[in-house]
């Protein structure tokens, strides 16, 4: 069973998508509509997003069917006509989905996905699109910041125990690996996505033994080639000296202590003292791992202070994106039955029509600027970012492996100019609006205002 099926993906909707669908059905509204998914604003200290969740979403869209139990549930609410329920019983997505490929870097107001389909089909997808893309993009973007702050040191996902649910924990492991983490502690994610898994031991393991040294010896016996010892349960430096004895014992057997982990206290100062102990004893290769409420801000501070940390285990603050736990993502109707649509609400205006995003690069291969355009616009010297992924309800490109997506993100990251990578960026990446899009948007807005004013006056 696909691990999405247990959630009845056809019901991954807010009620109003079905009530609107009922009304569309009654009114005979089945014309083609285009919905655009984009992020309005950056959270604090952000200047880019890492696209994630696209592959999951494409699977959901293509596989969406209304089971008998789902139809029975909707009928039990008393809100839907037999005709609309019969329509849902035979539901298949028949439209087109254009997306940015997973692993691409994108910016505010750029559609990461556009759905064109009969309006009921497109409307029913709204919550699924927002839920999947919002969370995974949020976490991938946070993880990318942690990787950047680590300055080339490996970063491992330790977030599973505190993410907002099991599925969120699995998504966090995948999204963080996409963005450059070297692995995860999440065994389920390791199995599902073939992500390398990492783990050491908990403080409970240490305290279950009469003496700390006994726990170290027992673990080294179990894992003589891969022992990483947690040394801060009682006294960190005392624990380090006991770990040093294990290193000597393993060396005598032709083995090597792989590492030690710090999880509390002044990580910067302790890491320097632990490094000195192991260096002076002739074990400079022992890896020092740090964990404990880490995120990109703490990583940057630790390394700026000269911390001697080789590997970072980042957990809760990445897995829930604690400083920015949501994105202002929207899914808006931009065209219906060939008519451009826009929203004029204060602070929530949308751009009309089916669109394309073009990206240009400078002579060094760095991103220069993006253009938000109509789908009919052309820019011969720029790269189009939205590609057809589903056509007539069927995938037109094969699913991508996580490794391929991870490689794409690395390529994207290499082309992102330094000012936008910063933990506290001072500049926003330039997004230009094409003249054709501006003109259509202006004309549509003027026509809509005239229509609504005349309508209001005649009603008055």
What do you see in this structure?
The chain has 460 residues and is an alpha/beta fold. The chain folds into two domains: 5-139 and 324-459, nicotinate phosphoribosyltransferase (Alpha-Beta Barrel); 200-290, Aldolase class I (TIM Barrel), CATH 3.20.20.70. It is built from 17 helices and 19 strands. The strands form four sheets. It has a seven-stranded antiparallel beta sheet. Strands 7-6-11-10-9-8 form a six-stranded parallel beta sheet. Helix 3 (68-76) runs antiparallel to helix 4.
In short:
The protein contains 17 helices and 19 strands.
Which CATH top level class of the largest domain fits? Alpha Beta
CATH architectural group of the largest domain = Alpha-Beta Barrel
Q: Which regions are unreliable across 5 or more consecutive residues at pLDDT < 50?
A: none
**End-to-end distance:** 58 Å
The average pLDDT score comes to 95
Characterize the biggest β-sheet: 7 strands, antiparallel
Tally the helices: what do you get?
17
| Helix/strand/pairing category | alpha/beta
Strand content: 15-25%
Widest sheet: strand order?
13-12-1-5-3-17-18
The CATH superfamily of the largest domain is identified as nicotinate phosphoribosyltransferase
How would you describe the shape? Answer: elongated
Proportion in helices: 40-55%
* Radius of gyration based on Cα positions: 26 Å
């Amino acid at each position: 069973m696909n691990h999405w099926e247990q959630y009845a993906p056809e019901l991954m909707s807010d009620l109003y998508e079905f009530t609107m669908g009922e009304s569309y059905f009654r009114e005979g509204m089945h014309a083609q509509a285009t919905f655009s998914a984009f992020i309005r604003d950056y959270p604090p200290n952000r200047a880019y997003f890492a696209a994630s969740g696209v592959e999951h979403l494409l699977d959901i869209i293509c596989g969406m069917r209304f089971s008998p139990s789902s139809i029975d549930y909707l009928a039990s609410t008393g809100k839907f006509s037999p005709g609309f329920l019969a329509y849902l019983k035979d539901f298949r997505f028949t439209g087109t989905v254009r997306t940015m490929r997973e692993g691409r870097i994108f910016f505010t107001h750029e559609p990461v996905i556009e759905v064109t389909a009969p309006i009921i089909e497109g409307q029913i997808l709204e919550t699924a699109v927002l839920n999947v893309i919002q969370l995974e993009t949020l976490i991938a973007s946070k993880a990318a910041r942690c990787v950047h702050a680590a300055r080339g040191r490996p970063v491992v996902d330790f977030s599973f125990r505190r993410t907002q649910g099991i599925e969120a924990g699995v998504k966090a492991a995948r999204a963080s690996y996409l963005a450059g983490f070297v692995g995860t502690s999440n065994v389920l994610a390791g199995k599902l996505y073939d992500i390398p898994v990492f783990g050491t031991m908990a403080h409970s393991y240490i305290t279950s033994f009469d003496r700390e040294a006994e726990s170290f010896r027992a673990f080294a016996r179990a894992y003589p080639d891969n022992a990483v010892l947690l040394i801060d349960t009682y006294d960190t430096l005392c624990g380090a000296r006991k770990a040093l004895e294990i290193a000597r014992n393993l060396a005598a057997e032709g083995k090597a202590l792989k590492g030690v982990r710090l999880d509390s206290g002044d990580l910067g100062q302790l890491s320097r003292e632990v490094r000195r102990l192991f260096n002076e004893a002739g074990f400079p290769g022992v890896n020092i791992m740090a964990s404990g409420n880490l995120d990109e801000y703490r990583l940057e501070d630790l390394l700026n202070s000269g911390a001697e940390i080789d590997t970072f285990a980042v957990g809760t603050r990445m897995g829930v994106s604690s400083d920015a736990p949501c994105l202002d993502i929207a899914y808006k109707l931009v065209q219906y039955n060939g008519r451009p649509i826009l929203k004029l609400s204060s602070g929530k205006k949308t751009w009309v029509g089916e669109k394309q995003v073009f990206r240009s690069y400078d002579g060094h291969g760095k991103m220069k600027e993006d253009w938000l355009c109509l789908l009919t616009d052309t820019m011969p010297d720029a790269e189009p970012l939205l590609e057809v992924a589903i056509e007539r309800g069927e995938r037109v490109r094969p699913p991508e492996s996580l490794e391929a997506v991870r490689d794409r993100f690395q390529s994207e990251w290499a082309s992102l100019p330094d000012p936008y990578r910063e933990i506290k960026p001072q500049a926003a990446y330039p997004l230009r609006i094409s003249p054709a899009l501006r003109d259509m948007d202006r004309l549509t807005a003027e026509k809509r205002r005239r229509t609504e004013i005349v309508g209001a006056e005649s009603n008055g």
